[in-house]
Amino acid sequence: MNRVRGRLRGDGGSIAPAVPVLALVLLLLAGLVVDAGRQLSARARAVAYAEEAARAGAAAVDLDAPDLQLLPEDQVAARVTAYCTAAAAAGAPIADPASCFRGTTSVGDPAGRPTVVRTHVDLVLPASLLGIVGVHDLRASGDGSARPFEGTREEDAR
């Protein structure tokens, strides 16, 4: 073997092709960590927005009724949509505020009247580091439900 100043001839620069590949792999791993964390956070935010939208809809109670019941579904839907639209205007990345309302269902009402408001929120966030591999949007969704409640219970007072 020919030696030039303590090295084998021909091995100079052999690490050079591996450096860009390793840098790309490290950048992709960092992108996965950062964007996966943002995705999890967006999921929690989507659930929070959906729950708040459901509460806004559940506040649409008929004050003239002798017992607790919701207003007609179109009025409940208007409250849910108004909440989602206001949240989107305030900067929430809600994909389509008009599609937050999923309907009302009857749970526990002997007369079969709708008592639970159901909502669904889709969020779309821009990807930060994964954009270099073609992933431009992070999507997250959450569901919420709420029902009007009258009075307080003993466990609520504690």
Automatic annotation (TrEMBL):
Transmembrane segments: 15-34
UniProt cross-references to InterPro entries, sorted A to Z: Tad_N
Span of domain Putative Flp pilus-assembly TadG-like N-terminal: 13-60
Pfam families given in the database record: Tad
Keywords per UniProt: Membrane, Transmembrane, Transmembrane helix
Key word Transmembrane helix present: yes
Protein name: Pilus assembly protein TadG-related protein
Organism: Kineococcus endophyticus
